[in-house]
Structure prediction request, 436 residues.
Amino acid sequence: MPETTDSEQDGQHMNNTEFLQQVVAGATPSIDEFVDALGDRFSLLREYQSTLQNCEWDAEGNLHIQTGMVLTEVYKILQSEATHLNRERRLSLILGALFHDIYQPITRQNPEIEKKIGVRAQQHDVSKGRSYLALKLMGLDLPYSVVETSLSLVAYHHEPKRLVTENKPAGEYHRIARLSDPELLYWLELANIRGRECPDRQQLEIVEKYGLYAQKYQAWQSFGADYQSWRAYFNRELANWNQDTRDLVFAQAIARYEAGKIFAPESELARSYSYRDAFPQVVITFGVSGSGKSTWIEHHLGDHTVISLDALRIKIASCRKDQSQNSRVVQVAREQLKTRLRSQSKIVWDATSLKYDFRHQVISLSRQYGALITLVIFHCPETIYLERNRQRRHSIPEEVLLQQLQSLEFPELDEGDRTLIVDEHGNTLATYGTCY
Prediction:
């Protein structure tokens, strides 16, 4: 990552912000204009031109042309079928179209991934693309709803077709409604198919069926109408229980419904008698070094037992920067976690948790003990981490920090039962999974 002066960063930020404000006001920039305006921040945009398309599915030539055609179709939809969208949803849809294949330039350069092109490659693209964008979208003065919705459109834009072609039940539609904006996914996929040299009528029909099914299952709006009524039901029936208990029962009901195990909230209410009197709670932090995790924990979770990997590293290896004893550190941390889970404690797993597999191990273990799991995501602009690292007493080498930024796997919102998004100042940007 090349060094830039503070004035250069301020100028770039101002240009980005002014450009996006014009889009909010109704401008319809071409793909060339987007690349010129945002290409310095999102460098993969500049590689669209050299990213050739797979002839079996895309006949447009390269990703730059294809994305431009999708943008054109999105603008048509916004001026005809979707004039009811407010400014924030409109901008989210446009950014979703711009970035929906943002990671393809990397995938198409990797022969091993290219050999497996198809569903697995699509999943790889959208997951990596979302992680690539997650920190770069911050710092643009965008409402957080635009950031989160744009990321979700990139992550889940293949889902409408998958749900229909695999004949998925209602629960799967509701899961996508929890994680994204179903209507915007619908418009994005319509634009994606219409913006082709030869639109495939069968593919259009599949997406149209998704729209019909999502509305039939009441999963057409974010979070879905059914879950709103379930939330009200649990708040009423569990009015004498604390918020954590209601959140756990609500989360269990959603998980079991989406897995096809129950079909009404009354079933989970009856089942909850077996666990709601006592259960452990686990808070898992996600954040690059310098995101403010430890300070936030100190201010907000004083009644929790903190399992800190940095603290264990000092104890075991005599230095928090020493990675040579990581296996031992994690082993000791897991044993501490098990002990606290057995005693129904409130626990904080204080680590960067940048990789999905690492988070999943902690989450899976916690679920075995029936814990209420809260994921706290520290979501800051990239520049914040670099600035803070230079000021920290326990700074890490900048190349290590850059590697963290480039390789992180941004969490999905349903990895835990509850998710809390926190900015660089410790302020709450968004919450998910709560029963209020």
Observations:
- The chain has 21 helices and six strands.
- The longest strand covers residues 372-378.
- The beta strands are 281-286, 305-308, 346-350, 372-378, 418-422, 428-432.
